[in-house]
Amino acid sequence: MPDSPRRATLATVAASAGVSVATVSKVLNGRSDVAPATRSLVQSLLQQHAYVAPAPRRVEATGGATIEVQFDADFTAYSTEIIQGAVEAGAELGVGVVLSIRRGEDRTAAWARDLIAAGRRALIAVTSQLTSPQLAALSRARLPLVLIDPLNLPRTRVTSIGSTNFAGGLAATQHLLSLGHRRIAYVGGPATAACNQARMHGYRAAMEAAGVPVPPGYVRTGHFRYQDGVVNGAALLDLAQTPTAIFGGSDETALGVMEAARARGLRIPEELSIVGFDDTQLARMASPPLTTVRQPLREMGGVAVRTALRLAAGEKVDSHHVELATELIVRGSTATAL
Predict the structure, then answer these.
(1) What is the pLDDT of residues 199-230, one digit of tens each?
(2) Is the Cα torsion angle 148, 154, 159, 161 positive or negative in sign?
(3) Which domain of life does the UniProt lineage start with (predicted)?
(4) Are strands 145-148 and 291-294 parallel, antiparallel or unpaired?
(5) pTM of the model
(6) pLDDT tens across 278-294, in order?
């Protein structure tokens, strides 16, 4: 992380209170041999200075170290794959992996202090949008951070793990073009999400390279959720010129589109081809099985844990952003255009 506001030290607090560093340390450790008035003053100044006890600069992969994997929304099929990879890597390395859900508004000023107090040695945030003050709080606490599929790209240099989203979007659209489709729509996630933008740009690049225009209303955004797929899929299928193929920015989105098509009596893939993105269990369980872009989610979870441990051990990483390869998996939800 880059430079951030100078972190308050015990000496800073002690000087403000007019007491010794040892006295401040006693208050932090809950010792009883401090006068009530002094304790109250020191506690007030600790809060005023936003003091955060630093995490140890080096940790071993064993000995009870824990890493927190934090999501900002309820668990999904996507989340489950990330969790599986993180837990497997933690078990292999002898590191505890703690799961939590903490939405943006819950990441208050005390957030970093709470993580340190709980004994966390690193934080992995999944599909989160972190603000500059939140990043600064983690930096002051010297708590290593790894992002997986961040919704925003922080201006500060933060270590992140993702996949080749542009290449995946390109491959999905090229597959549909190869089947003779020309009216191809895209239903994605949040418009500002980095991963969504990359998938959408891959889609647009494939369409442009093939000389196929994208009609107005053929690109829709929302969240990578089933219900958004239902709503946006319905909107596309109600257009005067309906698409013959739809690329969903996630498996959940694609399944929502599939339901919207079924509600209108459309046969899949005979009358509408659908492609997803992620290759979660949902893709394999769909009827028909979903053609999708495989995102190596388990590997991403494992790489994030290993990277977080290296940062916690004071090591430097080779790259601040790692992209793992995607792969198109063709199943039964796509067919030649009529």
Answers:
(1) 999 999 999 999 999 999 999 999 999 999 99
(2) positive
(3) Bacteria
(4) unpaired
(5) 0.79
(6) 999 999 999 999 999 99
